[in-house]
Amino acid sequence: MPSLSAASINSLPSTLRRKFLNSLSKEEAELLLRDWNVWAGDKQKAPPGDWRVWLFLGGRGAGKTRAGAQWVGSAVNSRRARRVALIGATFRDARAVMIEGESGLLRVTAGATFEPSNQRVLWPDGEIATVLSAEEPDSIRGHQFDAAWGDEFCKWQDAQGVLDMIRMALRIGDDPRMTLTTTPRNIAALRALIAAPGTVVTRGATKDNAVNLAPGFVEDLTARYGGTRLGRQELDAEIIEDIDGALFRRDWIERCRVRAAPALKRVVVAVDPPASAQGAECGIIVAGLGHDSAFYVLADCSAGGLTPGRWARRVADAYEAYEADRVVAEANQGGDMVKSVLNAEAPAMPVVMVRATRGKSVRAEPVAQHYEKGRVHHAGVFPELEDQMCSYDGSGESPDRMDALVWAITALDRKVPEPRARQL
Predict the structure, then answer these.
(1) Distance between CA atoms of 223 and 237, rounded to whole angstroms?
(2) Which residue, among 248, 380, 261, has the nearest Cα to 324 in the 3D structure?
(3) Is residue 239 included in any domain, yes or no?
(4) Spans of the chain, pLDDT less than 50
(5) What does pTM read for this prediction?
(6) Which H or E run contains 217?
(7) Sign of the CA dihedral running 288, 294, 248, 156
(8) CB burial class (10 A; 0-12, 13-18, 19+) of residue 276?
(9) CA distance linking residue 399 with residue 267, whole number of Å
(10) Domain assignment present for 241
(11) Phi-psi domain of 109 (left: phi exceeds 0; alpha: psi -120 through 50; beta: other)
C-alpha cells in the first residue's frame, strides 16, 4: 500500500475516496485502521533527528497523550526500547490516563498487559514499562531505562527534581530518549527544559485535533475562553508570562512549595460560593496555620457547574478529610442561603460567614505580602488556582479560587479560638 495519511484520503473528492476505500481488501482495510502513521497528525509524530527529549506542549485534547503512548509502543515494537519508565503526576494519574485511558498504552499497543500490583506494563517479548509517581522522586533511584515517557510534566510537584532523577536513570541502550507531554505552565523547570541542549519542542493546539473530539467541543471552549490568557494556555499551548500588575508572582509560589505540610495548629476550609448554578465555579480552598506561623495551602477542591447541594457536599467532605476547625464562607452571594445549604449538608460543621466590604485587590494585598515574604507554602501543585493568582491584576471576572484562598489565609491570620466541634 502506498504511503498515505488521513489528510490525503480526506482531501480526495468523495467519489474517488469511496472508490479507493471500496478497493481495499479486508486485510488492507484493517491495516489502514491500525496504522498510526496514517491517522496521526503531523505534530503527534516524533520529530526526526538527534534529540534526547521530545517535549510536546499541547492544549486540552490536542492528542499529546496518544502521541506519548504511540511513541512508547513504536519504540517497544521496533526493539529500540526494552526498559521504559512511565511517570505520571501520581500513580493514579499514570494508570487512569497513560495506561488504561482512552489514548493509553493498553489501547494503542498490541500485546500489552498491565500488572497493577507490580506497577508495570509487560509485552510478550519481555519488554517492561515501570510505572512511577512524580510524587516520589527518590523512588526513581536505582532504576535503569532506555526510554521514558512523562505525562503532564507541569503538574508534577517537583518537576525539576523528578526530571533530574529520570535523566540519571536513562543510561542503558544505544540511544536512550525521553518524551514529555504536557499542557504548559510558566514554571522554571519548563523554561529550563526548553532551553536545554537536546530538547526538541512540538506545540499542538486543541483545534488541531478537532476531528477526534466530541462535536462542538472546540467551538464551545473557543467561545468561552478564546483570546483569554486561560484559553491561550489551555487551548493554544502558549506559555503565559506573569502579567504586569498581577498581585501574585509564580516565583514566590515556586520557591516556597513543599511536598507535604507539617503538623498544623489550625485548618480552615474557605468557600467562595458561585453566583449561579449554571457553570459558575465554586471556590473551595483548604489551608492551615503551622506551628512555625507559616501558612500551608493543602487542597483546591473547587469545581464548576454544581448544584448548591453538591458543592456543599464537597465542602463538608473537605472539612472531614482535612480535620478542619471551621468553614469560612463569603456572605456576599446569598449569605443566608449559603449557610443554610452548608448546615443542611453537615449540621455539626462550624460555619463562619464573612462579608466583603472592600474590593478584591485590597482584600488580597495582605495575602500577597505573605507570599512575597515566603510565609505561604503550597503543599503540592494547584495549577488552576496558581494560574488565577498570577493572572489577576484587579480587573476582569471574579477569580473564585483565588477569592477562596484569600478568605482562608485571612481567617488563619486572625487570632481566633481553635475548637473544631463548637458551632460558631
Answers:
(1) 17
(2) 261
(3) no
(4) 1-2, 416-424
(5) 0.70
(6) helix 217-225
(7) negative
(8) exposed
(9) 22
(10) no
(11) beta
Position 233 scores a pLDDT of 84
The verdict on residue 420 lying in a domain is: no
Same domain for 351 and 215: no
| In-domain check, residue 419 | no
- For 96, the domain range is 41-234
Residues 406 and 288: beta-carbon distance below 8 Å: no
Hey, what's the cell of 141? Answer: 533511584
Q: What angle do CA 202, 203, 204 make, to 5 degrees?
A: 125
Q: What is the tens place of the pLDDT at every residue in 81-133?
A: 999 999 999 999 999 999 999 999 998 888 999 999 999 999 999 999 999 99
Regarding whether 323 and 218 lie in a shared domain, the answer is: no
3-state DSSP assignment of residue 243: coil
Q: Give the relative orientation of helices 383-391 and 400-413 as an angle to the nearest 10 degrees.
A: 90
Boundary residue ending a domain (234, 262, 284): 234
Q: How many other C-beta atoms are found inside a 10 Å radius of the C-beta of residue 416?
A: 13
- Answer for the pair 129, 114: CB distance below 8 angstroms, yes or no: no
Eight-state DSSP code of residue 137: G
Q: What is the pLDDT of residues 136-181, one digit of tens each?
A: 999 999 999 999 999 999 999 889 999 999 999 999 999 999 999 9
Going by C-alpha positions, the residue among 48, 16, 308 that lies closest to residue 202 is 48
Domain count, the chain: 3
